[in-house]
Amino acid sequence: MRNIAFHRLTPIAMALTLAPCAPLMAQQLMLEEVVVTAQKREQSLQDVPIAVAAMSGDKIEDIGITDLEQVALYIPNVSINQGQATSNIFIRGVGSGTNQGFEQSVGLYIDGLYSGRGQLAKVPLTLDLERVEILKGPQGILFGKNTIGGAINITTARPDFETGGLVEALYDPDHGEQILTGVLTGGLSDNLAGRLAVRYEGMDGWWENETLDEEGPDKDNLFIRGSLLWEATDTLEIIAKYEHGDFETLGRPQVVYQSDQPTNYLGQSPFPVLDDHDRGAGDILDTDDTELDVALLTLNWDVGMGTFTSITGYATYDTERNTNSDIAATASLNRLQEEEYDQFSQEVRLVSPGGETLDWIVGAYYQSSELSVSKTNTDIDFLLSGPLSVPALTATTDQRIPTQFDQDSTSWAVFGQGTYALTDTLRLGLGVRYNEEEKELDKASTNPGLGARLTADFVVLANPANNILIEDLRSHSFQGLKRDEDKFTWSANLQWDATDDSMLYASVSTGYKGGGFDEAYSNSGPTVRTGNIFTGEPDGGVVETGVDSSILNYDEETVLAYELGAKMTLADGAANLNLAVFRMEYDDLQVSSLVGDVFRVGNAGESVSQGVEVDGRWLLAEGFTLGGAVAYLDATYDTFTGATCTVPQVSDPVANPGCLNQDGTNIAPGESGGQDLSGETLLFAPEWSGNLNAEWILPLGDNLELRNNLDVNFTSSFYSSLDLDPNTEHDSATKVNLRIALASVADTWSLAVIGKNLTDEKTMVWRNDVALTDSNSYFGVPERGRSIAVQARYRF
Fold first, then answer.
1. Origin, by domain of life (predicted)?
2. Which domains does the chain have, with CATH numbers?
3. Which of 33, 138, 80 is nearest to 783 (CA)?
4. Which candidate, 9, 75, 166, 275, has a CA 20 to 30 Å from the CA of 582?
């Protein structure tokens, strides 16, 4: 099943290979050089001893990419998507789970500013860019902590002293999508230039809520970026940038795709299986409103011995999200969440000119941040004293469950990296970084009246995995919790120029991601793990008292990574081919799993991610370029005992063994336990993934040309749910995208038709079991099906 994508692609690959190549011998063909800053200095992509995929801003415009998720489709072993609660970024099977206590395992950097929270990825990351670089593997030396899986390095377009700009409009009539973009740049004086980029995104939606007869996602997004470039002297430049965004989404697509029991814990029938990718049900339309601001000041000063760079950044956002937590079509458990974040950072570094016997970089970094998360569940009177008729709770009235999570974090680091030329063709690179971090936490849940009842009475769900519903109702308070950690990381690499057109490298590196506090954990009092909520009887449940506050902590995550690679220029510069073989060994991999209606955090012992990646491009003829990439990935847990059991394992342990007690025996019906996932796959880790793409520019007379861009993206099956329930496996999929544009040869205007997912593959970005049910009921977040849009662009 995992190889289906390759068989589907064979005819397409053959067709592209046999495309017209007659002009090949008529002239010298040369691919345009790709320049990256993966090592904090400008270098050719072919000279960097790192597995890096890069895409220029012009290329992003030419193929009609409008967000970073679409960029990831072109790069194997990279997954970027909007999950159930936040953005998910995974590289080589390594990423962060869904919990507000987490930071990303893949660092996102925009013009040098670290954006460690998923909400900061809401900005239109493909607007007016110079380039996007995706660095695979740990990047802990130059990019810092929390790049344990890799880094995404985005560089926006600089202000230009020559007046210019563009106006662009995209419209999809089927989904009511409109994307309007405007860019203006020019000189304001002899040494001052400015640039303004604006994008509006609107959409009526492509998914229908059958219960409310409403469509979603209904989007209304506005983003503005303004920047100034001041060339103060011949050796000093200062760039100031400010960004503001308002992002409003109504109606997050989610569908129940399987349910063998039509009732929920209320005895109602809220989970209709509509057997349709584009239709779902829910008693509310989820909302997600975010307002963010980013300010950045960058100074570049040539001091003779090198370039001194200072990057001062501030980022803040406010998010309000209303979520149908149990996916029910009837009034039940909904959650309002408000999140506020403020971040200040300062980086300074000194970079040698380059091209010398010893090239070096030294620097320091400081960051402070404040995170506040407030959650309030809907009024639960109906749940406690209505259909359930729980004896201990029938007297409760007007009960809501507010929780508060406030975390302050500070960190600082010093780092250095050097590359020494041992011979004309052999170079040795070494890097070190020392980092210290401190986090402080205040956390509370305030529901005194109900909390007292729940402390005194046994009240639990039949399915132990869903007892979190009751545990969440207890009051608790943790004040002034603190954790401190420091870490030394290092890297080493050896580069050999085997020929003038080929470079081989070997590297070994370490990295780490800081530990933290579980934002979702909400019980500090006595806990009942088994029993029956309908009778109020304990049924032999075990009471755990005196839970220590350290249970909120999850440990740091570390990695030791090895990589062998080759970067080759072929056909006298008309083609290139890159290869990477890697192995990454992780300890205490941070994971989150859905327990009840929240995501709980823990560490998963040891895991290994290893594989092979190949990518290349070939300018077969003037105006015709063929490219592609393929990756094989073997990413598994070495040791992961005590993982969350699946719903079938808990509800029917006889038919579905594997959920074990502490003594290693299978649980009895109604008991809780854990499963052993050692040797099983990591999340978002398809065994095979890849892309084939072709660009063909066909002249139409002296002034017009037809620009054709075709790409085929494929992935084998994978999981997004930590318990690896077979019912949540994502099938293999192949998607075809096409852009055909009529344009002027001078590139002043173009009219294009853009087709995405032309074969209308029905895929999902995330799957899990429905919260708070004891049946085999599952839901997912579907991806958009086929879309056809028209686009007009004018440059000046």
1. Bacteria
2. 4-284+293-328+345-537+554-640+677-795 (2.40.170.20)
3. 80
4. 9
